[in-house]
Design goal:
CATH superfamily of the domain at 6-254: Aldolase class I
Largest sheet: 9 strands, mixed
Structural class: alpha/beta
Helix content: 25-40%
Radius of gyration: 21 Å
CATH architecture of the domain at 6-254: Alpha-Beta Barrel
Strand order of the largest sheet: 9-10-8-7-6-5-4-1-11
Shape: globular
CATH topology of the domain at 6-254: TIM Barrel
Number of strands: 17
Strand content: 15-25%
């Protein structure tokens, strides 16, 4: 197993309000009520605790997610980034992303965020329709959303992602396409466009809204993908679209089965050890108060498991086959430590079903394979028919990735 790229994920768990569809580890708070300085100090202790595990490795990207990270002041984030840079080496032009919600108070901070070294924003728009935003429980309106994008661009951010959803409560085809068209016209470099899904442990799960029929959702998806393509956005992952050379590097590292150190309440991580040929996944305590108490000590890890051979195969495929470009064969061996021969029968089976195609030492999903990804993944499971689940909530988090 070769050394793999390493990213850093930092979880800031507070929001002004918990959205009814959100299943991430987020906690509602008043903007002035959360312990900003204490939490930053805990993150630094947490980083120091894990430094021996990543000593000598460069960081390829940083993603600050939540929650609503833009609730944190530029001064607090500056002290965090300074602590990171004093302890770790970043590759040249490393991507540093901050998730933000389009509130006017937060948008006014965008210039300061840019000045402290954050070079990519991911803004949670979800819709440009006020009625849809109200149904989603969002605290902003369409005008505020458009203003946030404009302010971010004026602040010097050249790389901006906006999140948009379709299949919203009582949404029509025309409304879904109007949202997407406004997103395209905003002249950002990246769009995360994904279907609203009703997740367990959410308000929408307990009180399901009236969402469009599956046939209409399928029409939205097909029409939207065509609109994005003719507008210059290349689909490189199931729900991610980018202008040329503007793919999210941090997300790509997840999907290419790279390593990531996760810091913060409820953060997930994945680290490979080339000396022991092992891969470990772990989760930190999810409750912010408990996390701050334990940060800097082994007790901060609430769950840890070493991946078996079967885990490595399935988890690699769960990520790599989300990408329209699939994976290079050498990458499978380098990232999992396993021989390509171990998966050739599964690749051949999926190819016969029309879900995969292989050419020049690269295997990629077909359009049908992307549409029926869960069925495709069954080919790589020891027990056919077993349920396929997301690897972790963290893997779904970047730019609101959904499976």
């Amino acid at each position: 197993m070769h050394a793999v790229p390493l990213s850093l994920y930092i979880h800031l768990p507070w929001c002004i309000r918990k959205c009814p569809y959100c299943d991430f580890n987020s906690h509602a708070t008043e903007q002035a009520a959360f312990p900003e300085q204490d939490y930053i100090a805990a993150l630094i202790r947490d980083l120091d605790f894990d430094l021996p595990r990543i000593q000598g490795r460069e960081i390829h990207s940083i993603f600050i997610g939540g929650g609503t990270p833009s609730l944190f002041s530029p001064q607090a984030l500056q002290s965090l980034l300074e602590a990171i840079l004093s302890r770790l080496t970043l590759v040249a032009n490393a991507e540093i992303t901050l998730e933000a919600n389009p509130g006017t108070v937060e948008a006014a901070r965008f210039e300061a965020y840019r000045q402290i070294g954050i070079n990519r924003l991911s803004i949670g728009i979800q819709s440009f329709n006020d009625q849809m935003l109200q149904r989603l429980g969002r605290i902003h309106n369409a005008a505020t959303a458009r203003e946030a994008i404009t302010i971010a661009q004026a602040a010097g951010f050249e790389r901006i992602n906006i999140d948009l959803m379709y299949g919203l409560p009582q949404q029509t085809q025309e409304q879904a396409m109007a949202d997407l068209l406004q997103g395209i016209e905003a002249a950002t470099t990246h769009l995360s466009w994904y279907q609203l899904t009703i997740e367990p442990n959410t308000v929408f799960y307990k009180h399901p809204p009236s969402v469009p029929e599956e046939e209409l959702i399928w029409t939205m998806q097909q029409s939207g993908q065509h609109l994005l393509a003719v507008s210059g956005f290349q689909q490189y992952e199931i729900s991610a679209y980018a202008k040329p050379e503007q793919q999210c590097r941090h997300n790509l590292n997840y999907w290419q089965f790279g390593d990531y150190l996760g810091l913060g309440a409820g953060a997930h991580g994945k680290l490979s050890d080339t000396n022991t040929d092992s891969i470990t996944r772990y989760v930190r305590h999810r409750l912010p108060d408990r996390y701050m108490q334990l940060a800097g000590h082994a007790g901060v890890i609430s769950e840890s498991r070493m991946l078996t051979r079967e885990d490595r195969v399935l988890e690699f495929m769960m990520n790599a086959l989300r990408l329209t470009n699939g994976f290079e064969h050498r990458q499978f061996t380098e990232r999992t430590g396993l021989s390509l021969d171990s998966i050739l029968p599964a690749i051949e089976k999926a190819t016969r079903k029309g879900w995969l195609q292989t050419q020049a030492n690269r295997t990629r999903p077909t359009t049908s394979g992307l549409d029926f990804l869960n069925d495709l993944l069954q080919c790589f499971m020891l027990e056919p028919g077993a349920a396929v689940h997301s690897v972790s909530s963290q893997d779904r988090h970047a730019d609101s990735l959904k499976l």
